[in-house]
Amino acid sequence: MYTAKGQLDRNALIRQYQPLVHKLAHHMMAKLPANVQVDDLIQVGLIGLSEALSRFEATQGVQFETFATQRIRGAMLDELRENDWVSRGTRKSQKEIEESMRRLEHRLGRSPKESEIAADLGLALSDYQSLLNKVRGTQLVYLEDINHGTDDEDGFLDRHMGDSESDPLNMLRNERIRQALVSAIKALPEREQYIMSMYYEQDMNLKEIAAVLDVTESRICQLHSQSIARLRAKMRSH
After folding, report:
1. Angle at which helices 64-82 and 10-29 pack, to 10 degrees?
2. pLDDT reading at 85 higher than 80
3. Three-class SS of residue 231?
4. How far apart are CA 218 and CA 130, in angstroms?
5. Distance of alpha carbon 98 from alpha carbon 117, whole angstroms
6. What whole-number distance in Å separates Cα of residue 143 and Cα of residue 58?
7. pLDDT > 90 fraction of the chain, expressed in percent and rounded
8. What mean pLDDT comes out for the span 163-167?
9. Is the pTM of this model over 0.85?
10. Distance (Å, rounded) from C-alpha 144 to C-alpha 194?
11. What is the sign, positive or negative, of the torsion defined by CA atoms of 52, 42, 1, 64?
């Protein structure tokens, strides 16, 4: 889009790609605790979009939307890292859920039910479901997972920036881990498989999935968090 003077119309392009910023922000919110505000993500996403407009060169052979998506998501992740969005308490709760799932699966020889996990944790079912809403899925791979149990988290990115073997994305690209992850997803309860498929393969948000399954968005958030915990419990050995 260009102005009458033949210059790139930045304002028109920002308006055109605002829905992309909103979509990425809401998609990311499913993995974040409740204290993170979607409006904050949208604001930093718009800054990322503005930077993308400044830096994009058509000669790079990349579609602008692809380039902008990377810049927008990167701006949001930078903001989250800077504000330390995952508290130690949230990580502790997530790991307690994972440990419970591992214990129960070993004892029962199958994926445990919600009521069984709640009982193992000494919680009422409603309290366990509230805890799932609190952790909101978090991540499949934590930085400390590749820190070999050390407490030195602050320098991780600096120390491993050039180490592609230690990068979480490269770890997930590893064929052996990819196959293990596929097997772990297939072992999820059927409803959780549907949710993971709709969320990650069909790029649907939690509200859309809730409408398809005729349940509340909060319930989908709980099941998504539980699915991530199941996968992390199974993938811990990798």
Report:
1. 50
2. no
3. helix
4. 9
5. 10
6. 34
7. 26
8. 48
9. no
10. 29
11. positive
Residue 226 has pLDDT above 70, yes or no: yes
53 neighbors 21 (Cβ within 8 angstroms):
no
Q: What is the 3-state secondary structure (H, E, C) of 54-93?
A: HHCCHHHCCCHHHHHHHHHHHHHHHHHHHCCCCCHHHHHH
- Are 31 and 138 within 8 A, CB to CB? yes
The set of residues, in sequence order, having a beta carbon less than 8 Å from that of 198 and lying 6+ positions away, is 204, 208, 209, 212
Collect all residues with Cβ–Cβ distance below 8 Å to 187 and sequence separation of at least 6: 111, 234
Which are the contacts of 2, defined by CB distance < 8 A and separation ≥ 6?
8, 9
Q: Confidence class of residue 55 from pLDDT cuts 50, 70 and 90?
A: confident
What value does the mean pLDDT take over residues 207-219?
Answer: 92
Half-sphere exposure of 50 (CA within 13 A, CB side): 7
Two structure tokens written together for 170: 């490269």
Tokens of 159: 């120390």
| Angstrom distance (rounded) from CA 43 to CA 49 | 10
> 8 — phi, psi (to 5°)?
-65, 125
Question: What one-letter code names the amino acid at 39?
Answer: D
Dihedral sign of CA atoms 169, 208, 213, 136 in order = positive
